[in-house]
Amino acid sequence: MRADVLVVGGGLGGVAAALAAARSGRSVILTEEFDWLGGQLTSQAVPPDEHSWIEQFGATASYRALRNGIRDYYRRHYPLTERSRAWADLNPGAGWVSRICHEPRVAVAVLEGMLAPYRGAGRLTVLQPYRPVAAATEGDRVLGVTVAHRDRDDRIDIAAPYVLDATETGELLPLSGTEYVTGFEGQAQTGEPSAPAEAQPLNMQAVSVCFAIDHVGGDHTIDRPAGYDFWRDYKPDFWGDRLLSWRSPHPRTLEIVERSFTPNPDDDPLSVHADQRLNPGDGNLWTFRRIAARRNFTDGAYGSDITLVNWPMIDYFEGPVIDVPNASWHLTKARELSYSVLYWLQTEAPRPDGGTGFPGLRLRGDVTGSRDGLAQAPYIRESRRIRAEYTVVEQDLSLAVRGSHGAMRYPDAVGVGMYRIDLHPSTGGDNYIDVGSCPFEIPLGALIPQRMENLLPAGKNIGTTHITNGSYRLHPVEWNVGEVAGLLADFCLARGESPRAVRSDPRLLADFQDRISAAGVEPRWPEIAGY
């Protein structure tokens, strides 16, 4: 097969890249390993983590269309109460982590709708479920990629002038010989205050296998997981208690805190004000990442809230799942941990009334679209990252370093984002690293490999460090990166120029920044001043 642009990986960055290139008139092939497009938003089942101003600014127009589309889908198809239907900033789950917590299947429907016109026109071909297994290169260029069907013996060779790596773990980088880094960089390399003295390539953030649950009548206890005894007794040195407990380190202070868990509180959804500047929202784990609040719907429509379990105790940090021979074993153990957490919740978790266990908790694999009840895919926080023309370091956005000056302003800015530098416990035994940050920009240099000419990152594999990945890995930033990668491929095809030339030539750079602005990308945060 052949196209103008090949996008490998159908997560948020991949969908945004394919959409941008197809809207620009390019023929596009998009491949995805799992049953749903959308990555962390859908197959990984993680409600969006977003900044405090997301409803007003700080996202691309197409990402805003995705968010609006999700709300519109609920209004068109769900039995909302009139009060919730009239809620301008409808939060279907009334979760505290985001102002738009929702069921992942809704996002799938909206993403498919956004892509549908280009599939119908024959401009976009989506191959599912296919994963990359080989890449053909010549010098500093990728000629094509071979993808294999997940479930049968079927391979397809795909050629394209531009190849975008939107996989969750940067899978095209080793396949194509593109230079990349993993894990912690050392202070000697980056000068980052939070970095270790020496590089630790296999020290990576925890992965998590999420799952959805509700709480209804009856006993829905699952079979006792094979590794349950290990996980029930497991006590990390820095955790302050067993991993399977309500106690864990506070990410920002590392103080050991105890969280609560009250299924189906009779709270008013419209009273939830999800703003992590004011409240991280994880006091009651049930409402923290709730994706369906029953009081948003007419009486009897939902017998229970539905909540998404992406909580501290499901973080798996026993070993990395990138560039190690036993990666699949670790992923299996991560799934075992998630089942063990559910079994503990159903049988042994302390209840407010002094009892133990919540047997009414029911695993909702129908919500996550999986046969085994868990999310289709593991939540991968940290990818392989290209060795880029510019690498974003902690000093560029740390609030402690930058203070009132704000984050670094890049001459080649191609987007914006905001999130604390939020690192979960890692495979090297590190506790949380959680550092205040400033609203930041995305430099084009972070999307350009040092050597390869036609391979572009379109997700979490851009030129960040282990530390700054903690801010740049969130939903709207991944979408922004993918969208810019798709627009850059189109721009380079139209002009006959390379991505490297676009960045280095002030005239081309200005033209490209005008191009992305016209497409609805905000290259910089707004400055509010009189005129």
| CATH architecture identity of the largest domain | 3-Layer(bba) Sandwich
Distance between the termini: 54 Å
Work out the number of β strands. Answer: 22
Poorly predicted parts = none
Mean pLDDT: 97
Strand order of the largest sheet: 3-2-1-7-22
* CATH fold call of the largest domain: FAD/NAD(P)-binding domain
Can you say what the CATH homologous superfamily of the largest domain is? Answer: FAD/NAD(P)-binding domain
Q: What level of helicity do the residues show?
A: 25-40%
Number of discrete domains:
2
**What's the number of helices?**
16
Give the biggest beta sheet: 5 strands, parallel
Decide which structural class fits the backbone. Answer: alpha+beta
Inertia-based shape: globular
β content, as a range? 15-25%
Q: Tell me, what is the CATH class of the largest domain?
A: Alpha Beta
Radius of gyration: 22 Å
